[in-house]
């Protein structure tokens, strides 16, 4: 039987955080056996905010290395760089002609990013979700594992697939989001009301996958909690709730047992233990990452092979689209 397809991507817009890992990467790993998975490094998306070319190059390869270090196997999954597959930009243009301005205007991520980058309010930031829809629809993905913040973008992808199918006949699979119930939104350590983001100006707001143990200790120590002084899992203590979520993911213990374990114990000890659990959890990823960054040829081999396969699969969809809308085949 043919396997279902999965597509997802990560932007090389900064070093990856444990938010990216918990909400996305770690879930990618578990899908590899059951599905035909395409995991992309979405560099075209990353340039919607200014990037220093040298850093972008490095981060792109870093994301690839971190995909593999987190357990994604290039023999099972297709790993590739978005700009290596021109069909993404090509389909994006087509889909932009059936996207309503009103839909894009409602996108929360656009509104938030627009606030942050008033002097660089470029059109790419606005049409970002159309490119994301193209990424997904090109592979006829059944499922898209993402963090909770991407739900709205995924709705647009579904909507565009349906609109195109209704207008020109069945062409695209309508994808379903795969958002894990737990850890879908890891919050900033400095402001538990907003999500942890790799492009946050405050480096104490996030833990990077590649942070060393001293840095992790320091950031967790400084993480915002409250003055209640009791370890509980509730909305009135959002900082603590977030830390408990992180603890649970890295320790594989459920939140309830953690709350029991720390009954009557202060935040200091809890944070110390949390640091240890995070440091231990990240260790194997960091070790594998280090090995991989010394194997440039291997990484190049992976992304070249990945691009070949991705170009083949996406090319088929794009040709179908072009034909249906009335373009003359080459
Ligand atoms: N805080 C988070 N909690 C859970 N999941 C998260 N993701 C991001 N932040 C969290 C998930 O990570 C995947 C890759 O995200 P992305 O790089 O494509 O862009 P993003 O969602 O905009 O992530 P960032 O870290 O906030 O990047 P910047 O700061 O560059 O915008 C996605 O599946 C996302 O849901």
What would you note in describing this structure?
The protein is mainly alpha-helical and 330 residues long. It folds into two domains: 5-179 and 296-325, HUPs (Rossmann fold); 203-290, Tyrosyl-Transfer RNA Synthetase (Orthogonal Bundle), CATH 1.10.240. It has 13 helices and five strands. It has helices at 18-31, 43-46, 53-69, 87-96, 101-105, 108-116, 123-138, 151-168, 213-222, 238-251, 255-261, 267-293, 296-325; strands spanning 5-10, 36-41, 78-81, 143-145, 176-178. The strands form two sheets. A three-stranded parallel beta sheet has the order 1-2-3. Strands 4-5 form a two-stranded parallel ribbon. The longest helix has 30 residues, at 296-325. The chain starts with a strand and ends in a 5-residue tail after the last helix. The mean pLDDT is 96. It binds adenosine-5'-tetraphosphate.
